[in-house]
TrEMBL record:
Pfam families: Enkurin. One of its GO terms (cellular component) is axonemal microtubule. InterPro entries: Enkurin_dom, Enkurin_domain-protein. This is Enkurin domain-containing protein. The lineage of its organism: Eukaryota, Metazoa, Spiralia, Lophotrochozoa, Platyhelminthes. It is found in: Cell projection, Cilium; Cytoplasm, Cytoskeleton. The keyword DNA repair does not apply. Keywords: Cell projection, Cytoplasm, Cytoskeleton. It comes from the Eukaryota. GO terms for molecular function: calmodulin binding. Residues 167-259 form the Enkurin domain. Its main location: other. PROSITE patterns: ENKURIN (PS51665).
Length: 261
């Protein structure tokens, strides 16, 4: 291939031709049948209908004496009878007159009209809705939920002890009763000894006297804790005072004290 400047120009893109589509061999037959008047006037009737003259207008009850003529059909039309032909073949019987006994009310039938009147008369009158006008422009709100009307003071349980407090008091009383029963049962089984009031007082006095002695010793400790002996002495006195205070609180906090033999 010879070198030329024309070879540098862009060439248009060649689009390949599309392949031929499938064509049915019965295409011409279908087109011919579609264009032919196979079912002419089947739904809409003829295109042009002869219009009667103004002198020959339709008069009252004239259509009753007319004889129905079926529509013209093509050679390939359907021979089945349509809905309109079925209606025109035979007329229905006329409705019975008012004088007929069929529509007369039976003597034992229920008179619903009178019953409804009596029911409406016995119904209570509808109460007017209570409203509150709070602005001069006529804005209204419901009065009961507004909080401006006394509601709770008129209730039956107003001022009574709440149910949950009553239940809580019953639960506390039941717990005390169960504890007393448990102590009584343990006393019966293990023969616990109950400390009397005199013994309890003497025990408290002894503990308090011992606490006073140790507290006086604690107050006499030097301020400077420069040796291990002084530090250990101070820690021992603090522990002893704490134990005595716990014992005193235990005796004063319980009314009945039982001691096992």
């Amino acid at each position: 291939m010879e070198e030329s400047i024309y070879n540098l120009l862009p060439k248009p893109l060649e689009i390949p031709p599309k392949p031929l589509r499938y064509t049915s061999q019965f295409r011409h037959t279908v087109e011919r049948e579609f264009k032919s008047d196979k079912y002419k006037w089947k739904t809409m009737g003829p295109a042009k209908v002869s219009v009667p003259t103004p002198d020959n207008f339709l008069k009252k009850n004239e259509c009753q004496h007319m004889v129905h003529t079926p529509r013209s059909k093509s050679a390939n039309a359907d021979d089945r009878k349509n809905f309109r032909d079925c209606l025109l073949d035979e007329r229905k019987a006329n409705l019975p007159s008012k004088s007929n006994n069929v529509f007369q009310r039976l003597s034992g039938a229920t008179d619903y009209v009178t019953m409804n009147k009596i029911t409406v008369q016995k119904m209570p009158s509808k109460k007017a809705k209570r409203l509150l006008v709070d602005t001069r422009t006529g804005d209204k709100i419901d009065l009961p939920p507004s909080g401006l009307e006394l509601v709770y003071v008129y209730k039956k349980k107003f001022g009574d002890v709440p149910d949950y407090l009553v239940q809580r008091a019953k639960a506390v009383a039941l717990a005390k009763q169960q504890y007393n029963d448990y102590v009584r049962e343990m006393k019966r089984r293990e023969a616990l000894y109950q400390v009397s009031e005199e013994e309890k007082k003497s025990l408290l006095n002894g503990l308090k006297g011992q606490w006073d002695v140790l507290y006086q010793q604690y107050q006499c400790l030097p301020v400077m804790m420069d040796t291990f002996t002084k530090i250990n002495r101070k820690q021992w006195l603090e522990a002893a005072l704490g134990d005595l205070e716990k014992d005193i609180e235990m005796l004063e906090g319980h009314q009945d004290i039982y001691v096992a033999h």
